[in-house]
Amino acid sequence: MTTKTWRPLTAGCCRVHDQVIAGKLPRFRPNRPEFSKKIAQLSSFRRLSASDVPDSPSTTSEALTHAFAPGLHVFSLGELRAITQNFCGGFLLGEGGFGTVHKGYVDDRLRPGLKAQAVAVKLLDVEGLQGHREWLAEVIFLGKLRHPHLVKLIGYCCEDKERLLVYEFMPRGSLENHLFKRISNSLAWGIRLKIAIGAAKGLAFLHGAEKPVIYRDFKTSNVLLDSDFTAKLSDFGLAKVGPEGEDTHVTTRVMGTQGYAAPEYVMTGHLTTRSDVYSFGVVLLELLTGRRSMDKSRPKREQNLVDWATPYLTTTRRVRMIMDPRLEGQFSVKGSRAVAALASQCVNPKLKARPPMHVVVEVLEGLQHLRDMAGNAPPAPLTQTYRTQRAARKPFSEHVHKV
Ligand SMILES: Nc1ncnc2c1ncn2[C@@H]1O[C@H](COP(=O)(O)OP(=O)(O)OP(=O)(O)O)[C@@H](O)[C@H]1O
Ligand SMILES: [Mg+2]
Q1: Quick one: which residues bind ATP (predicted)?
Q2: What is the pLDDT of residues 85-136, one digit of tens each?
């Protein structure tokens, strides 16, 4: 296949009600002049399926759909304005580094055959080339990849300078909201495990693809939850096709989110599927502890979750010390110990020591049946139990504690 030069369709700025949307999270992203320089320098840099992108200044959204995503709907800006009530604040679902996300409704009056459903419309802040590139990556990857643990892309809009994406609506929002924003009850242990398994399956699917895909931005805000807490990965803007042939890694600009990116990737730009395994380990730690991967509001030695938690991951007693207080002791002791051990392997600084994602899935699935909840009273010494029972005049057998 010949490699063609990719040209941006446009490079503009996307505004909502004349208000430029600002990014909120710290990311490793070079500014534009720096970005152009780096692209020229790194010979091994490969854009996402760049060789497949039509090399024509007249590339249209229709050409894009034919080339990559025949199943996707192409919407006009007017249509998306209509279904989101003109992107009004009442329909705002959230805001990320690339723009705002709004709720809307579609049905077959909009497109014949379109299922009546709620959707999430992401309005990209296409500040320069990068925003466009991330939009394109999302269309290319999510247009082609379909899996129960990847959020479904329904369509997109590419009109003048505007870039939008239309996804299936995920009723429970992001894992980040549930873990860290006190919007709802704490997630129960079993639900945390279910979410970890779902997200792990999503990553395992990407890594096991014929051309492995490195997700590169695995974090709690990119894990979205269905009504039954089925986890789905969203945001493929930073995803890359993995190394091919003899290559062990892809070399690329360092992008991602502070606190989640693997140390070797941050230091060298060498990206492998094991970089995602590291990020997955960080999210496992967040699920265990209820702490953010990076929290500047904590004392200095507690700010980086991996650094802080690592010494606690080795014994059952120590693991119990760092468990999320919101669980109120309602977690499996053996399960938490095993998840801690797994997280510790995933965040191992040596990337070869990190398990592949299909192994991670197997380990996590093996923990689902455990019911040794820590919140049950620990077994008291026999003599004391016996005395208590006599006082209560109850048969001894009723009080035997099962672990
Ligand atoms: N398909 C969806 N269904 C429901 N809510 C969604 C959907 N997609 C995104 N959201 C909501 O919008 C928020 C913002 O998402 P977005 O991906 O733009 O940013 P982010 O993941 O928070 O940050 P970043 O830009 O660093 O990825 C999410 O945290 C989630 O609450
Ligand atoms: Mg996101």
Answers
A1: 122
A2: 999 888 999 988 778 999 999 999 998 889 999 999 999 877 655 678 888 8
For residue 96 and ligand 1, the question of a CB distance below 6 A is answered with yes
Sign of the four-CA dihedral 266, 267, 268, 271: negative
For tokens 């693991």, name the residue.
319
Which pair of structure tokens corresponds to residue 1?
């296949």
Domains of the chain: 35-168 (3.30.200.20), 175-402 (1.10.510.10)
pLDDT, tens only, 176-210: 999 998 666 789 999 999 999 999 999 999 999 98
Determine the atom of ligand 1 nearest the C-alpha atom of 235: 17
Q: Is 280 in the pocket of ligand 1 (CB under 6 A)?
A: no
Q: How much is the pLDDT for 50? A: 33
Options 217, 235, 276, 324, the catalytic residue: 217
Contact 169, 122 (CB under 8 A): no
Angle CA(233)–CA(235)–CA(241) in degrees, nearest 5? 90
Query: Going by DSSP bridges, is the β-strand pair 117-124/19-20 parallel, antiparallel, or unpaired?
Result: unpaired
The reported pTM is 0.79
Instruction: Tell me, using a 6 A CB cutoff, whether residue 155 lines ligand 1.
Output: no
